[in-house]
Amino acid sequence: MSRPLEKTTFTYGDYRNWPAEERWELIDGVPYNMSSAPSRRHQKILMNISTEFSVYLKGKTCDVYQAPFDVRLPNSNETDDEITTVVQPDLVVICDPKKLDDKGCIGSPDLVIEVISPSTMQKDLKEKFYLYERMKIQYYWLVYPEENIVTIFTLTDEGKYGRPDIYAGKDKIDIGLFQDFTIDLADVFELKNGNNDQD
């Protein structure tokens, strides 16, 4: 571990100096180790979702990115090195090209997807939920690979996430960000032919 032990709060300036082979996130200066490898099913589902978005967004102004991809979320007018929140969501959709640079994204994506793993569940359900709500991310998806469930939180006019929409099994999801885009969960979870590997 290369982090100075005497520090309790870290910034993007610290983060950039950590070994490239280590994966970390910072939420309000608190580091979270992302080194544990996700399951094969986690990766397969993420690839399926990413493919759906990539195909739909080809030639459009919005972009989709899959982890590892740094999203810096400044609280105000911090310089890059002062930012205390840097996350690597499983998948993000960004429709404002001004938010993109060679380091990743600075500012809130329009849509964030996290595929739940046992090692990240608490962070995804608690710390990241309140972070994404605070940062006004319009859509937050939680995908449960074992249960074949997708929970979608949408930001209300009051700036809070309302009650989630819950989809399961072979449901189809109309993507709120785009009027003519639907994802079939049977394709995402590979249920049409009875395939449902749980590795």
Explain this structure to me?
Helices cover 20% and strands 26% of the residues. With 199 residues, it is of the alpha+beta class. The protein has a single domain (37-188), classed as tt1808, chain A, CATH 3.90.1570.10. It has a 6-stranded mixed β-sheet with strand order 3-6-9-10-11-12, sandwiched between helices. The chain has a 4-stranded mixed β-sheet with strand order 5-4-8-7, with no helix packed on it.
Element layout with pairings:
Blueprint: H1 12-15, E1 24-27, E2 30-33, H2 40-57, E3 63-66, E4 71-72, E5 86-87, E6 91-94, E7 100-101, E8 104-106, E9 111-115, H3 121-134, E10 139-144, E11 149-154, E12 165-168, E13 172-174, E14 182-184, H4 185-188
Parallel strand pairs: 4-8, 9-10
Antiparallel strand pairs: 1-2, 3-6, 4-5, 6-9, 7-8, 10-11, 11-12, 13-14
Keywords: Endonuclease, Hydrolase, Nuclease
Organism: Scopulibacillus darangshiensis
InterPro entries: Nuclease_put_TT1808, Restrct_endonuc-II-like, Uma2
Defining traits:
six-stranded mixed β-sheet; alpha+beta; globular; tt1808, chain A; single chain; four-stranded mixed β-sheet; 26% strand; 14 strands; 199 residues
